[in-house]
Amino acid sequence: MPNQFSIKTVFTETSGSLLTLTVAPTKIIRGAGVLQTAAAEINLLGIRPLIIAGNSTLAISQKCLQPVLAKQNWQMALASYGVNCCEASLQGLKKTAEEHQADVIIGFGGGKALDTAKLVAHELRLPVVTIPTSGATCAATTALSNVYSESGAFLYDVALSRCPDLLILDYDLIQTAPQRTLVAGIGDAIAKWYEASVSSGNSQQTLIISAVQQARVLRDILLQKSATALKKPGSKVWQEVIDATVLLAGVIGGLGGAQCRTVAAHAVHNGLTHISGHGSIHGEKVAYGILVQLRLEEMLQSNQLAASARQQLLKFYAEIGLPQNLKHLGLGNITLGDLQTAAEIALNPQSDIHRLPFKVVMEQLMAAMVSTTAPTDGRDVTNRVSTRGMSEEV
Ligand SMILES: [Zn+2]
To answer: Which Gene3D superfamilies match (predicted)?
Structure first.
């Protein structure tokens, strides 16, 4: 059944502005096993940490952090955010933090744990440490939190006052995550180019030009290194891909500001979260959303560069295991009504899909959503190698 949460209340406008840039964490410690040596850095921020993790990572966080914190005379408390970064869990966690008299918040886990920890710290005006346990998102880096309903439907995002005070990127810890999380992270990170080049590719602003160019570099790194990295977890090339998904993707979002963040790929993701699309993770839905966006550019603008980019991505997705269509997302049997609900949410008046340089109506979006693997019509598709790089790069 589609989630019938009021469409009117979703999508609070992000208040990001280039007047207040939040580019990167104050400090990043990265390396294999660095968590064990991070106590002194955390100590600079507080001595009464509240550690926020998910139900499944709570025990791991205790096991990992206990030896680190035992070296200090700290009063540590642990709490789970539950299943989603939702308003109810945020209220509960703020209360827990206040009762514990926490002076620093530590987020430990995937994107939702980190988003929750950042938001609790933001609202209580406390410093925050992010410790990602997978390469699935850039949430450890950014000054942005996504808020979901209790059932996991995307509601809105919140622009935070600053990026995390400390990011601890421990490759050993990330290597314990299922491979699928990194594959999803690659999908989320590669979206930066396809979205930023559309929303901001013609910008004359120094920092936005720089962010779009970095997004292109990020895409190239991922296209070149992902397949090798996934075959060799823990290797140098694998670490480079982790740096790309966790760090570089986040810094691009910070440098480009709200204008440079998302277009149709994330709008489609947001729509899918409302139709029980919970069998797939964020970056998987976003990766599929890139194909939908390219298909729209192809169908509505006759954009042949978008057509060739889509064919290039389909090959790349097949190689590393990203979803190419609704069936791969576990949504192969959804009803027309479900598809319409997802499209309606994605086309909400506040949605970032309207950053596309042309108007999209529901029937067109639905058509694009069911034809992401369609062959190109063969006309003028001669530039299969360089995606959109030749004429659209700034
Ligand atoms: Zn994303």
So the answer is: 3.40.50.1970, Dehydroquinate synthase-like - alpha domain (1.20.1090.10)
Dihedral pair phi/psi, residue 148, rounded to 5°:
-115, 165
> Could you tell me the distance, in angstroms and rounded to a whole number, from the CA of residue 392 to the centre of ligand 1?
23
Q: How far does residue 283's CA lie from ligand 1's centre (Å)?
A: 6
User: Tens of pLDDT along 42-99?
Assistant: 999 999 999 999 988 888 888 888 888 777 778 899 999 988 889 989 999 999 999 9
Grouping H, G, I as helix, E, B as strand and the rest as coil, residue 88 is helix
- Rounded Cα distance between 317 and 324, Å, is 7
pTM of model > 0.85: yes
In angstroms, rounded to a whole number, what is the distance separating the alpha carbons of residues 233 and 325?
27
266 CA to centre of ligand 1 in angstroms: 6
In angstroms, what is the span from residue 75 Cα to ligand 1's centroid?
34
Distance from the alpha carbon of residue 128 to the mean position of ligand 1, in angstroms: 21
Contact assessment for residue 201 and residue 393, using Cβ atoms and an 8 Å cutoff: yes
Separation of CA 380 and ligand 1 centre (Å): 32
